[in-house]
Amino acid sequence: MTKAIFFDIDGTLISFETHKIPASTQEALKELRSKGIKIFIATGRPWCLIDNLAGLEFDGYITVNGSYCFTADHQPIYKGCIPQEDIERLIDSRQAEHTPFVFVHDNDMFVTGINERVLKVSELIEIPAPRVAPIEEARGKDILQMMGYFTAEEEKNSDLFQTVLPHCEPMRWYPLFADIIARGNSKRMGIDKVLEYYGIDLKDTMAFGDGGNDVPMLKHVATGIAMGNAEDHVKAVADYVTSAVDDNGIANALQHFGLI
User: What is the pTM of this model?
Assistant: First the structure.
């Protein structure tokens, strides 16, 4: 019996084409809650960038890829920050002089510089580019997540995660950048923290996603559902592949499983 369902935002709840939640999805989520099924957000976005959910009510939030989880009324469930020693090494490495990095802390964020990649990603998810500040501003703050604007190939050819950020790991859902979180954090761990808080068994869970950072949670829940617009390696780990977000993917899957 499904008691809790976790939803990614970009490319899952929200279309990259319209930047909106399809009407069929909105109605489906309302019906789930009316039946007593808890619904949760599970996103790479920080709370300060979650302003696009069409006024829908959720029972809780897993944000910044599991680094900060809280209830609907903002009671903290879990918070896992990037170690200050890694922040200091990144500052000393001077890598931010040629690669922009975003730092997310509390309800604020800043970027060390703006280039075409930063602007393209901002346009993709319809958010303004973060304010620009020197990397030293990250010193002494509870950094929940960073974003590095480098490709997978550039990451492979660097020693960033071997020598500079050894206590961190990248989560990638778009080719031009990677979310960077403390090692061990993930949407999977966020789900475990939320389930423990609400007393729900893992066997009663379902999740929807489309990107690489959704893989841990899709493999972990009882039923992992990949959107039709998901990357192939995401579809490969899912228990079920539905239609695309713009083709009523969430509603179609929930109907397939008899939940609406």
Answer: 0.88
